[in-house]
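Design request, tokens follow.
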């Protein structure tokens, strides 16, 4: 079962690092226009470097790992090359039907992975109408590197900001938390804050309680921690979070429109 992967950037690297040693990658072929990133990554994770797109015949799957703005160029470069392949696209912002249209193909599965797949702790959302029958196979593969969840396309679209952008949102909060103190060096404080994030992550994964109950375990009535939380609630931290997410959704629509117009 041949897999051609187009694009060798950060997300493809995280997926392949996660799959390395967990799945048979001997029939995976990695391509990038520069050639450099694909050659380097292919060596690192033990897949085949594909220098020329004509060098591989009849792949079962073609994965798309470029940016949404690069899809039209990619479509030009593969025109008529992989007629019977099922496409698997990790692109944000562009709908399944728009991608089928741009690529001129019949079957496409949308996947939305996140960076923690690198350590087999990721989440991959999947949706497809055109390749519904093939969805399970891809879902099974991604379940090796974390939670693999089949959803409707509108759910994948909305939850991309939670699951795929999510790691960056937690890092930003953690950075701000570390910067709220003065002891030790900035780097040492960041190290402590990252450790708190990692430890809390283990608690969140192991503990089946709801987040509110977990907050209650750390706080005590009229104590110091609840004072911090109450002040944040008075300052409407929740509204700040929602405001950022709305800006992200707006940007997603802008990217979609600009691709359609170009
Ligand atoms: N980063 C994340 O956390 C994340 C999460 C979920 C989904 N995604 C999605 O994953 C995709 C890639 O994101 P990224 O962060 O990995 O980007 P990236 O690091 O910039 O990688 C983009 C890759 O696409 C390749 N590329 C560009 N034009 C191409 C073409 N015409 N044909 C084939 N390959 C082409 C580039 O090749 P060169 O190396 O030769 O320049 C590069 O290897 C995006 O669509 C994004 O929406 C990313």
């Amino acid at each position: 079962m041949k897999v051609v992967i187009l694009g060798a950037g950060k997300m493809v690297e995280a997926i392949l690092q996660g799959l390395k040693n967990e799945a048979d990658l001997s029939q995976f072929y990695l391509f990038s226009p520069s050639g450099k990133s694909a050659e380097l990554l292919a060596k690192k994770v033990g897949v085949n470097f594909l220098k020329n797109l004509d060098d591989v015949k009849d792949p079962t799957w073609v994965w798309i790992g470029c940016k949404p703005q690069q899809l039209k160029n990619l479509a030009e470069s593969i025109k008529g090359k992989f007629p019977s392949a099922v496409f698997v696209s990790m692109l944000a912002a562009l709908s399944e039907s728009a991608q089928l249209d741009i690529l001129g193909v019949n079957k496409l599965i949308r996947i939305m992975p996140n960076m923690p797949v690198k350590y087999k702790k990721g989440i991959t959302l999947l949706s497809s109408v055109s390749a519904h029958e093939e969805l399970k196979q891809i879902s099974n593969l991604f379940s090796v590197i974390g939670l693999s969840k089949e959803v409707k396309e509108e759910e994948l679209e909305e939850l991309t900001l939670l699951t795929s952008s999510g790691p960056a949102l937690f890092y930003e909060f953690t950075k701000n938390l570390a910067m709220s103190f003065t002891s030790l060096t900035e780097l040492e404080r960041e190290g402590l804050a990252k450790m708190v994030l990692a430890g809390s992550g283990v608690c969140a994964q192991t503990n089946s309680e709801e987040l509110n109950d977990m907050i209650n375990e750390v706080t005590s009535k009229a104590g110091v921690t609840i004072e911090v939380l109450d002040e944040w609630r008075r300052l409407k931290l929740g509204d700040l979070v929602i405001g950022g997410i709305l800006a992200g959704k707006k940007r997603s629509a802008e990217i979609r429109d600009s691709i359609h117009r170009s």
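Comment from the thread starter after seeing the answer: thanks! The chain is about 50% helix and 15% strand.
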